[in-house]
Every structure is written in C-alpha cells, then in structure tokens.
Design a protein that fits this description.
The protein is about 25% helix and about 20% strand. It has about 725 residues and is of the alpha/beta class. Among the domains are: about 130 residues, Immunoglobulins (Immunoglobulin-like, Sandwich), CATH 2.60.40.10; about 100 residues, Sandwich (Immunoglobulin-like). Strands 13-14-17-18-19-20-21-22 form an eight-stranded parallel barrel. Strands 1, 2, 3, 6 and 7 form a five-stranded antiparallel β-sheet that branches. Helix 15 packs parallel to helix 17. The longest helix is centred in the first third of the chain and has 25 residues. The termini are far apart.
C-alpha cells in the first residue's frame, strides 16, 4: 500500500513539474527593480531576486532556462544600467519565478587584456554565488574561444533552500580528540565492490558511515566538493580519456559538485550535501571541507571564461601591474586568486560562513593556503586581511581552520602561518617520520620533537600541539603501502611522460620495486605500514589518516592520481576481507589512542613530574633506560615512557627500533603497576595488537624488540 501511494505521489509530481515547464515556455515573467543584496539569488513567496557584481560591465542580461540542458532560454531579461545597477551590482527581481529555474548571465564591457578585462557579450557566465550548477552541456574548449558558447555552457539553478535539519548543528569536537580521515567522495564508493545504491555520490558515502564508525575516526576531510571543472586537465591527459578527479579546479564556491549528486539536473545539490552532513553528525563524525581559494578553473591567459574572468578578471586575480594580460601564478595552475582585495576577501569569508551556517560543516582545510597570504603585488603580507578576517569571523569562531602552509612558488610557512587559531599540515612531521621509517640515520632528535607536537614550531608563538596536523601520507603522493613498495614514482598513465608528481618521496621499496610475491618483502612492507600507524597515533597533535591505507591500497606507484578516476584510486571494498588483519590493527590502534588522554594533550609536554605521581609526563631512553641516543649520529632507536594523566590511566612505554638488529630492551619499574604487551608490529595478527581485555602481564622487565619494529607496552595497577 505504502509503495502504491509513493508511486501515485511521484506521478502527480511529474504532472505538476511538466505543467510548470509548459507554463514557463509560454510565459514571460514580469520584472521589478530588485535589490543589490545579497549577491546571487534569493527566493521568496513573490519571486526571485538576482544580483551580480561587475565593476566594469556596461550592460547585463539574465537568461532563464526551463531545464539544465535546455538549448534556448525561455526568457531573456535585459537590465537597464540607470535603474538596475547600484554601485557595481546589477540586480533584478523576477516576479513569480519558481525555484528550480535555471539561469546564466551575459555581460558586455571593455575587452582589453592589458587592462585585465575580458568582457564578451556572447559568453554565458555562471553566477559566482550560485548554490547549484550543471555541467550537462559543458565544453571547456568553447569557453576558451571568443564568441557564443551558449549551447556548451554550464547553467545555474535557483536552489530550493528549504530543509529540515531535525535539530542538527555543527559538532564541537575538541581538536586534541580529533582523528581526521581524508577521503575522496567519488573514489570512496565508485568501485563495483562498494555495494552502495549510488556509487561515487554523497548518498553513497552515507551508506559507508557504519564503516567510518567502526574505524573510529572523528572527522572526515573531504577532498574538494565545491563544484569543479572535470575537464581541466592538460591536452595529453585529456587525450587519454582522463579528467580532473581530485577536484582542485573550483569554479563555483557556493555549489556542491554536481558530479557527486544523484539528481543534480533537479537542482538537489544543497539537499544532497546536507543529507550527508546530517547523517555524519548523527553518527558523531564531523565534516571538514578541503577548499581551494588559491586559484580557480579559469586557469591562465588562454583559459576559459566561466564567471570571474567574465565579470572582473582584473579584480579577482593577481596580474603584472604594468600588463594585466600577464597573470601571476603562485599555484602552478595558471592563475592566483587575489584574496586580499577587499571584494575578494569578502567573497571568500562570506562563502565560508555560508558553508558553516547553512550547510553545518565543521571546518576547512585550505589548499595552498600561503597563496592567500600574498598582497595584490604578490608580496608576502605579515598580516593578510583575508586570513585574519577568517580567524576573527564570529560565524567561524568554533570552526576548525587548517592550512596547507605553502604555495607552488616557494613560499613555505609551516610553523609561521599568520594567525593563532590556524592548524597546519605539518610537512616537516611527514618528512621526518618517513626518513625514520626507511631507516635513515641522525633523525631521532627531530623525530622526538615531532612526536611531542613540534614545540619548536609552535610553542614560542603561544600556539599548541593541536596546531600540528600530523600525517605520513595524504591524497597527494604515495599511498602508505606504495611508500614502502616504490623508490620512484610511476606516473606514465597520467600522460605527461612521468614528469608530473613529486620526486622527493623519502620512500623505500623494501628491496624490490613494485609488486612482488616475495613473502619476506611483503611481510616487511606490512610491518612498516603498521609502524607508521603507531608512530602517527601516539604523536601529540592531530593525526590525519588517508582513506584506503588501512586496507593497504596501492596506486601501483602513481603518486599523482589527480586524473585517475578509475580503479587506480578507487577504494576496493573486497580488501576489507582480504586485508582484514590490517584493518583490525588500525581500528585497535585508534582505540588505543582514544583511551589515553596522555596522547591527546592540549598543552606541550614538559618532562616534569605528573602531579601526585613520581613519574615525569615523558622520559626518554635508548638501548638502556634513561640514556637516549641524542648524540649518536648512527642511532635508529628511540624509546620513551609516557605517563598517564592520572592514576586511572595506564602509562605507555614505546620502543621504536628501526635498526637492522634485534635489541633486548629493559622496561622501567613503575611502583604498583605491571607492564603488558599491547603492540608488537613484528608479530602476526591477532598478536600484533592486543586489546586491554586480552593483555597479560609480562613476567620479566626485558623484551626483545626485532629489527624495524615498533613495540608498545601498557601498564595497569597491580
């Protein structure tokens, strides 16, 4: 009965929609003066207000379409400069226009590249403030050439903003308790093995929330989900049938990406993304968005006119001050957003506030954030207005702010990124841990500092261990398994003759490059992956894990999978069974971190006695207790004891042995407590990691730690 009712309702809705479309084709909507605020669209019971900024435009037209792929508009509204423009905003109110209507702009004005102006009255422009866009008719090449691209342009939709949040609000998970899981919305469920109803979508990700819960992460960090241009790849790459997969090619900063929606042609972008956020919050998982405000998909001088170039290139991008046909490129993508121009800064901050207030996201990771620290001449600003504006925004006050604190032009600000609330992707942590894991000499001092939250970078500024986002791998570079399977990148499948991707990988193939059936090498690779997880999850700061590493996902040595929307990058869910031992290890390692507040400290370790206990918060050792090997340039052993915050918390004794031989290590005596083996990465599952209920007290204070192995002991009150 219920299904019949639903089918009847669906048929009725189709009839209503068809009637509305028929009405649109035959009706010319009345227009009124409109309001310059807010930019974009705002609908109410009487109709829809449209507003767009363009300082140098001399005329503007609003084109209305019945559907996302309608060839011709059903109405063209010509705005009058003397009555439909206020300062530099063009605006009009369309009476009775329903939500779900599709639209674009056309604007005329000077076309003088030396002045940074590229007006073309025939170009269809999408609204920079659009809440939903369609790529259905999009052809990038048509937007790169002069003239009419109307039949091959993107379209915007007047989005339906009505939504029942059912009491949902952004989560307020303390940063010291955060465990971030970086994932790609499409690649997480696109593999045939995912078993979800709508692979590669926000909806598909919702179906995998139980997996995230079982893993134990606190936040997902979503690779770009603002609408991006999948066609933005080099010619040789496009010729191979590849596309922009990662999404670092944003064009519409207020719109969820239509490729991740089930029914984007129905304008459901906002609803589908909100469904994902609400479902994740219901599961206790926060949402961090990877955002790209350093460049856009309009690329360099020969790039497409999509929106910003067509309404004000000279404002939105960095140019040579004497010849604005020359775009300054600090991003490696052809253009750089002029983030500290007052209008652009306001655009960026308003956009972030929108995603927090209206979409309930919990934080942002800023791609190449140091590009946003540059002034209009490209100079590095000590106090960039846009970054301080983000930090001081009341709407963003409880939001996590994470900077990739460098750009592609050599500016590297890890440890010195402007502001105090900002956390940073700690590339120094990544490199140090990689060096230690592959067996480099002379890094244990630096490793100890990284494990303790990188106080050398942050403490003198009054910042905290949570300023450090610790990671060993991320989307950009080798996967964790490939880090120990390849000495060199293998990116020929990208179509750029292996020139793309980073050459500085600090990797180690364990003796054979790539795939092998050598059991000894396979065991070593697996052990090294476990070592990496242990070090990462016992470090002070905020750990970030890359999706798929817990399943030993391999990209076959490709360290730049930005264009590989295929099984190279997709998560193979068959691996949850095949690599179940590794998955179990990671789940239990996350659980170990969660039961130890001493690892999740908000303040830096001091080496002083814990109140009420005769034990320092941290003490360092080497081959012998209390004898760290700081002055030994050949040392590859680091040992430390981490005291529990209170009598109720177990202490930890952690041995990191990356030397080439087994070392018998002495455990410290802690009055009234006995040590139990919690982790030994040289052992096979399930003995590699032992949950507290299965741990047994050691009968000796000495333990042999094998070569290239990490061992962790927990103690308990006798």
């Amino acid at each position: 009965m219920q299904r019949r009712i639903i089918k009847s309702i669906d048929k009725l809705l189709v009839l209503v929609v068809n009637k509305l479309r028929g009405d649109m084709q035959n009706k010319q909507y009345q227009v009124k003066h409109g309001n310059p605020y807010p930019s974009g669209t705002r609908s109410n019971a009487g109709g829809v207000n449209f507003s767009i900024f363009s300082r140098h435009a001399t005329s503007a037209e609003l084109l209305l379409f019945e559907t996302a792929d309608s060839i011709e508009p059903f109405q063209i509204i010509t705005l009058q400069k003397d009555k439909d423009r206020t300062f530099f905003s063009w605006h009009v109110y369309v009476v009775g226009l329903p939500v779900g209507t599709w639209y674009v702009w056309r604007m005329d004005g000077p076309n003088h590249s030396a002045s940074g102006l590229h007006f073309d009255k025939e170009k269809h422009l999408i609204d920079p403030w659009a809440k939903g866009v369609s790529h259905k008719r999009w052809e990038r090449s048509a937007a790169c050439n002069p003239g009419d691209n109307g039949h091959k342009a993107m379209r915007c939709v007047v989005a339906d903003d009505d939504y029942d949040w059912e009491g949902d609000i952004p989560l307020r998970i303390s940063s010291e308790k955060a465990i971030i899981y970086e994932l790609h919305v499409g690649g997480f469920t696109r593999h045939a093995s995912s078993g979800v109803s709508n692979p590669g979508t926000f909806s598909g990700l919702i179906e995998k929330i139980p997996y995230l819960q079982a893993l134990g992460v606190s936040h997902v960090e979503l690779l770009p989900v603002m609408a991006f241009d999948e066609q933005d790849v080099p010619e040789n790459t496009a010729a191979l049938g590849l596309k922009n997969y990662w999404g670092y090619s944003t064009h519409s900063f207020f719109s969820p990406h239509p490729g991740y929606c089930v029914t984007p042609e129905q304008g459901t972008h906002i609803q589908e993304f909100r469904d994902l956020v609400k479902a994740l919050h219901c599961a206790g998982i926060g949402v961090i968005m990877d955002v790209v405000f350093n460049h856009t998909s309009e690329a360099g001088a020969g790039g497409p006119i999509i929106n910003f170039r067509g309404i004000g290139d000279n404002i939105f991008y960095h140019h040579d001050p004497f010849d604005k046909s020359i775009l300054y490129d600090y991003t490696g993508c052809g253009n750089t957003v002029n983030a500290n121009h007052p209008l652009v800064a306001r655009f960026i901050i308003s956009c972030l506030e929108y995603w927090v207030k209206e979409m309930h996201v919990d934080g942002f990771r800023f791609d190449l954030a140091s590009a946003m620290a540059r002034g209009e001449g490209g100079e590095v600003l000590s106090d960039p207005p846009v970054l301080w504006g983000i930090e001081l925004s009341r709407q963003l006050a409880k939001t996590k702010l994470i900077a990739e604190a460098w750009d592609a032009a050599g500016l590297y600000q890890v440890g010195s990124f402007p502001g105090y609330r900002w956390a940073e992707w700690n590339g120094i942590y990544r490199d140090t841990v990689r060096q230690f894991l592959r067996g480099d000499h002379g890094v244990i001092k630096d490793l100890a500092t990284r494990i303790c939250g990188s106080s050398d970078l942050y403490e003198h500024q009054g910042r905290l261990p949570i300023s450090s986002i610790n990671f060993v791998t991320c989307h950009d570079g080798f996967t964790l398994y490939d880090l120990f399977s390849y000495n060199q990148k293998h990116n020929f499948a990208n179509g750029e003759n292996n020139r793309d991707g980073c050459n500085h990988n600090l990797s180690f193939n364990c003796g054979i490059e790539g795939e092998t059936d050598d059991a000894e090498i396979l065991a070593l690779r697996r052990k090294k992956a476990k070592n990496a997880y242990v070090i990462l999850l016992v470090s002070q700061g905020v750990p970030m894990l890359l999706a798929g590493n817990e399943l030993l996902h391999s990209q076959k040595g490709n360290n730049n999978g930005y264009c590989q929307d295929n099984e190279i990058t997709w998560i193979d869910w068959n691996m949850t069974a095949i690599k179940s031992d590794m998955l179990r290890f990671v789940q239990n390692m996350i659980a170990l971190r969660k039961r130890h507040p001493s690892i999740m400290r908000r303040r830096f370790l001091t080496g002083k006695l814990v109140p009420g206990r005769n034990l320092p918060d941290i003490s360092w050792h080497g081959k012998q207790l209390d004898a760290p090997l700081w002055d030994d340039p050949e040392a590859r052993i680091l040992v430390f004891t981490l005291a529990g915050f209170s009598e109720s918390e177990s202490d930890l004794h952690i041995v990191l042995n990356m030397s080439v031989q087994t070392e018998t290590m002495e455990l410290p005596v802690v009055s009234g407590r006995e040590w139990c083996l919690a982790i030994d990465t040289s052992r096979l599952s399930p003995e590699d990691i032992v949950p507290p209920q299965d741990q047994r007290a050691l009968q000796t204070h000495f333990y042999p730690v094998k070569s290239q192995t990490v061992v962790v002991f927990e103690n308990r009150v006798v």
